[in-house]
Write a structure and sequence with these properties.
3'-5'-RNA exonuclease activity, Endo/exonu/phosph_ase_sf, globular, alpha+beta, Nocturnin, Endo/exonuclease/phosphatase, 6-stranded mixed beta sheet, Deoxyribonuclease I, Chain A
Length: 327
């Protein structure tokens, strides 16, 4: 539960954002469903979101999103929609991918309401190809600094099956939950895109789990792995993640609570056609119970021009879950 002062600060930031985007429609309506379990302790909320790098949006020369109005892609307005999309749900832990405005936007904006943030850039970010870019994109993890204490952090460049380093990275944090008095290990990552790279994504998933195991130093604690895996549930890396770490299986939170993955987590129209995939996940160890989740918007209610659009600032839908410790 956020403090009264934090809630007031969030309301003020959201009010300012509303003023900036007054001509925009409300954010895409989504329903949060809570399932009550007999768990002890205080639940915590986790958000996973690929926020669409400014350097890769239509505000750059890439012309990726041919149906999206230019005003919806302009960073000056889109950043306000992004902060709305984050703070509306008041998450305790936030994992973001394609972050290329960490230091000039995300960090100061979230610092203001009590979060601490950590960032790891891609080794060779595609954002750097464009003139006037905002730096490399990468992965960020934020956490409520009153709720959690950072014990240690580490970033790693992921490996291929032959041990060679790849361009993709992972960020690891060891947090201590001040309310439940428990350790929590959290990883954020963004695996290789494109259909031809299934084997590489499988190797990168194994690399994530190997690094996580080393990072945990044999501590038996609960685990979260969040990210854009660029992989449908039918891909081998999905099974890699289910096999888990320390011999402990991991489960996809959306499937855990709803019994199936969402119909999509990204849906866009590009110059070569329409793209609709389920590729974003929050993986959790079995000692964490999922007791609430934000529904992905119904397919029938999706904007005809897909994502991003005037009502939503990214080509990926955020995933939000409430977790409780079983013991």
């Amino acid at each position: 539960m956020a403090s009264a002062s934090k809630v007031d600060k969030i309301k003020e930031i959201l009010r300012k954002a509303d003023t900036t985007v007054a001509d925009f429609p409300p954010l895409t309506e989504r329903t949060f469903e809570t399932v009550h379990y007999a768990c002890k302790g205080s639940p915590f909320r986790v958000m996973q979101w690929n926020v669409l790098a400014d350097g890769l949006s239509g505000s750059s020369p890439t012309s990726n999103f041919i149906k999206c109005p230019s005003e919806a892609l302009s960073w000056s307005t889109r950043k306000q929609r992004l902060i709305q999309g984050i703070l509306t749900y008041e998450p305790d832990i936030i994992c973001l991918e394609e972050v290329d405005h960490f230091y000039d936007f995300f960090k100061p904006s979230l610092d203001e309401v009590g979060y601490t943030g950590i960032f790891v850039p891609k080794e060779d970010s595609p954002c750097l190809k464009f003139p006037g870019n905002s730096g490399p994109d990468g992965t960020a993890i934020f956490f409520d600094k009153q709720r959690f204490k950072l014990r240690k952090q580490q970033s790693k460049q992921l490996k291929n099956s032959d041990g060679t380093l790849t361009n993709q990275t992972a960020l690891f944090v060891h947090l201590f939950d001040n309310l439940n008095k428990k350790s929590l290990y959290c990883c954020g990552t963004h695996l290789k895109a494109k259909p031809a790279f299934q084997d590489l994504r499988s190797a990168q998933g194994k690399s994530v789990l190997a690094f996580l195991k080393d990072f945990m130093e044999n501590e038996q604690a609960e685990v979260l792995v969040c990210g854009d895996f660029n992989a449908e549930p039918t891909e081998p890396v999905y099974q890699v993640m289910e096999d888990g770490v320390h011999g402990v299986p991991l489960r996809s939170a959306y499937k855990t609570i709803s019994r199936s993955e969402p119909d999509y987590t990204t849906w866009k129209i590009r110059p070569n056609g329409e793209v609709k995939h389920t590729i974003d996940y929050v993986w959790h160890s079995e000692g964490l119970k999922v007791d609430g989740y934000l529904h992905v918007a119904d397919t029938a209610s999706m904007n005809v021009d897909r994502l991003p659009c005037m009502a939503y600032p990214s080509d990926h839908i955020s995933l939000v879950f409430d977790f409780s410790f079983l013991e």
